[in-house]
Amino acid sequence: DEYIAGLKRPKGLALGVMINASDLYKGEDSKEVVDRLFPNTAADTVVSVVRIASHFHELERCLEAAEYLSGMGFQVGINLMQVALRTDDELRDFASRASKTSASVLYVADSTGSLDEARVEHIIKVLSRVWSGDIGLHAHDNMGLALSNTSTAVATGARWVDSTVTGMGRGPGNTRTEELLVLLDSTPDIETRLAPLVLLISNWFGPNKAKFGWGSNLFYYLSGVNGIHPTFVQEMLADSRY
To answer: Cα–chain-centroid distance for residue 75?
Structure first.
């Protein structure tokens, strides 16, 4: 809260934070960890959204924490990571267990960037048969499919989707905000403003992307094809032995 309070923030901007479910296992129980990470309720902080990134085997404490955080007034999303590895039965189990909490959004994260449009549509339909709340997608761009997968998610009923300016993100990055805005510009009830973003990219993100080199490449593409986590590729690229 102290850090965020020091930032220049546009009025009316909703702020969210993400925590890892693995952190919830660094205490006696999930409530102890939540109390340490979030000493203030939603009414006493500028943060309104909390998302918990969880592997399937970490869901027990993740769902407990979601209930505590909802009780504190936060809008809570649950991110199921590495969703490409999950079976339909596991997805239904995830949705069923989450339905017993006060979580607002079920998110699926394509951590290895290996999903295609057909699989995205199928996953959302499987979840929506059990879960009545909002569904979201967090796409990685290993194989250059992040934008098409995000578009498919919206068309299939997803209400939340993630994007980053110029796709900046871990490994190959994510859906590019500027491309998504162009795609959504013709969608009813969605207002987009591309001009300020173009200026931001021209003055800041573009030069820094050229300098630091984020974005996909052949190695990340291969990691998507083979279901390998992008962190593995990052470590190899950073190691001079390879």
So the answer is: 15
**pTM as predicted:** 0.88
Provide the 3-class DSSP secondary structure of residue 106: strand
What distance in Å separates the CA atoms of residue 114 and residue 85, rounded to the nearest whole number? Answer: 10
Pairing of strands 47-54, 105-110: unpaired
Q: State the Rg of the chain over Cα.
A: 18
Whether 149 contacts 110, CB under 8 Å: yes
Note whether 153 and 125 are within 8 A (CB): no
Separation of alpha carbons 200 and 205, rounded Å: 7
Cα gap 70→139, rounded to integer Å: 25
Q: Say what the pLDDT of residue 23 is.
A: 93
Blockwise average pLDDT, block size 10, the chain, 242 residues: 87 92 89 92 94 95 96 97 95 96 96 94 97 96 94 95 93 91 81 89 92 84 85 87 86
CB 137 within 8 A of CB 161: yes
Q: Helix, strand or coil for residue 9? A: coil
Q: What is the per-residue pLDDT for 121? A: 98
pLDDT for the residue numbered 227: 85
Report how far residue 116's alpha carbon sits from residue 129's, in angstroms, rounded to the nearest whole number.
21
